[in-house]
Design a protein that fits this description.
alpha/beta, seven-stranded mixed β-sheet, 8 helices, globular
Length: 325
């Protein structure tokens, strides 16, 4: 189980601590230590773009996640963002939290910590609600921060808030984004990039995986995020990060990086999908797999090898590959 602050800190100090983390644009990456049950292996699922109260095959994906999660003995679940459609949560008492999360992901194997980042739709609502420790009182699985790291045995995952990098989100007038806790933007991004670089360089983990909501490379409807190509990709290359996982495009895909080996995995098929818009010619020499539908991803790691598999809503394996460390 995860080492959670609620086990050792009374609720009021915890709320103050959490509020400071959420509101400060200069806070370091939150660090969570997840105690694994087996030091020789770590397994988890990744799903994104899911919160539709069970609709658009969200419930079907959740059932299959429960089956695969049980089969693999997963430690936790990663959410790549857009957790609650279409405008995030209105507050910590919003019924959508239970209707889209607690009641949908009810399988026994999914009663593990969920580590979530915010997507662009989550920024349309009350972002502080998703970041609030009060949600852990409603469902103890929920762990959501803007940017944080998870240390799980020999694995370290770096979850990065990619939303403020996207220029077009700041060009709309009036804006439908709630940027409280992010402004001034330049300071927020400067601090995040520095903290991200520092944390990656300091990591002694055997495996380092980075997660963001937006794709760096994608042939899907939304495609590449040019700001991440400029700011995040060089950091991944410099630190030889082998895997980047994202959502945002409502599909499943696997693309090799051009040059420095990085596997780009899109897991944004948690509910509504089938955009019927793809750009196969964009990475025709690097595309390993693409599925314009619902599903999720599993990652199994030992110290020397990673196995990644993509599943559709029925739990059928669509694509898998191995990586040697």
């Amino acid at each position: 189980m995860a080492d959670t602050y609620r086990n050792s800190i009374p609720l009021l100090p915890l709320m103050i601590f959490w509020l400071c983390l959420c509101l400060s644009v200069s806070a370091k990456l939150v660090q969570i230590r997840h105690r694994v049950k087996d030091e020789s292996q770590v397994s988890f699922l990744a799903v994104g773009d899911w919160g539709r109260k069970g609709g658009y095959n969200q419930s079907a994906v959740a059932r299959s996640m429960g089956v695969i999660g049980d089969k693999l003995g997963i430690e936790f679940v990663i959410s790549t963002g857009d957790n609650f459609y279409s405008d995030g949560l209105t507050g910590t008492n919003d019924s959508a939290f239970a209707e889209s999360f607690t009641k949908v992901y009810s399988a026994r194997s999914l009663q593990k910590p969920w580590y979530a980042i915010l997507g662009n739709h989550d920024y349309h609502g009350n972002t502080e609600a998703q970041l609030s420790p009060l949600l852990k009182k409603r469902d103890s699985r929920w762990n959501c921060f803007r940017s944080f790291t998870i240390q799980a045995g020999f694995l370290q995952i770096f979850l990065i808030d990619t939303n403020p990098f996207v220029d077009k989100y700041f060009l709309k007038t009036p804006s439908n984004f709630n940027w409280k806790g992010v402004l001034p933007r330049n300071k927020y991004l400067s601090n995040l990039l520095q903290d991200f670089k520092t944390a990656l360089r300091a990591s002694k983990a055997t495996w380092k995986i980075v997660v963001g909501h937006h794709p760096i490379r994608s042939i899907g409807q939304r495609g590449d995020t040019v700001e991440l190509l400029k700011y995040i990709l060089p950091i991944l290359q410099e630190n030889k990060v082998p895997i980047y996982i994202n959502g945002h495009d409502h599909c499943l895909e696997h693309i090799n990086n051009i040059g420095t080996p990085i596997e780009f995995l899109t897991s944004g098929g948690g509910s509504r999908a089938w955009s019927n818009t793809t750009h196969y010619d964009r990475y025709k020499n690097n595309l390993k797999f693409y599925y314009d539908g619902q599903g999720f991803v599993s990652v199994q790691l030992t110290r020397t090898e990673a196995n990644v598999a993509f599943y559709d809503a029925s739990g059928k394996t669509l694509h898998s590959f191995n990586l040697k460390k």
